[in-house]
Design goal:
- By secondary structure, the chain is an alpha+beta fold.
- The protein has seven helices and ten strands.
- 53% of the residues lie in helices and 18% in strands.
Length: 269
């Protein structure tokens, strides 16, 4: 028994020291990865890099750093990393063929970050969904809708579909219209609407707003109302102007007609 212990004890000691060293390397590696990610994020933030690019680079560095740490630990335990890398490469090809959709999403994420059809914080509409972009990750983009839902859309779908970006530009035109009856004073109706637009401090003077007759309909005359506002003021201005137009036209006894039809009856002789 003493001979066996003398033979095994050095091996147990070496294994224990190797395990302790591996734990030290693992803890130090995780700390180093955390510090590296923080330094990289702060550097990009100081350089005013887009938040989507920061998120993408942070995820890429995280994956690459963890892969290096795992290979270092395997090498410490005597695993042939060259063979392991070869096996991983072969497995990667096989996995890539079976995960073509995921690779398409990854490529779509790169295209979105390079071409920048939208940025984090923009309000977009795509694939039947619309909302504020909260995150652009490696494979998916997350939207936050107006009714407090989170919608996750694959980047491959985004990069190959139509995207409407409502906040890419600083200004936006608000398209509204109102119908007045044929018996109404059309000139006075236009004056009232113009006064409302003139008094609203959220409506821009340049480009100039437009108030014009747009259509002679079956039930009334359609007046087109098109002011320009800052993108973030779009809905506030639209809701407020429509309410004021309704109230002011009522005060001026200018009727807003509902659908109606005039029927002429002929008596038989």
């Amino acid at each position: 028994m003493a001979t066996i212990m003398e033979t095994l004890w050095p091996k147990f000691l070496d294994a224990g020291m190797g395990l302790v060293w591996a734990v030290v390397v693992l803890v130090a590696g995780l700390k180093a990865i955390g510090v590296l990610r923080k330094v990289l994020r702060r550097a990009m933030e100081r350089g005013n890099v887009d938040i989507g690019v920061i998120q993408f680079m942070d995820a890429s560095v995280k994956i690459a750093a963890y892969a290096v740490l795992i290979l270092a630990l395997l090498a410490h335990f005597g695993v042939q990393t060259t063979s392991f890398i070869t096996i991983l490469g072969s497995a990667g090809v096989a996995i890539g063929l079976s995960l073509q959709g995921s690779l398409a999403n990854f490529a779509g994420g790169i295209l979105i970050l390079v071409l920048k059809p939208f940025l984090v914080g923009h309000y977009i509409s795509t694939s039947g969904c619309e909302g504020t972009v909260r995150e652009i990750s490696l494979f998916y983009t997350t939207l936050h809708t107006a009714d407090n839902r989170s919608v996750v859309i694959p980047n491959g779908t985004l990069s190959n579909g139509n995207i409407v970006n409502y906040t890419a530009n600083e200004t936006r035109r608000v398209d509204m219209s109102v119908d007045v009856s044929y018996d109404a004073d059309l000139k006075r109706a236009r004056e009232v609407i113009e006064q409302i637009l003139e008094q609203d401090d959220k409506i821009l003077k340049d480009p100039a707003w437009v108030v014009a007759v747009d259509n002679l309909g079956d039930s009334g005359i359609t007046i087109l109302i098109r002011p320009w506002v800052r993108s973030e003021d779009y809905w506030t201005v639209k809701w407020r102007i429509l309410e004021k137009v309704h109230d002011r036209l009522g005060e001026e006894n200018i009727d807003i007609p509902f659908p109606q039809m005039t029927v002429h009856l002929e008596r038989e002789s």
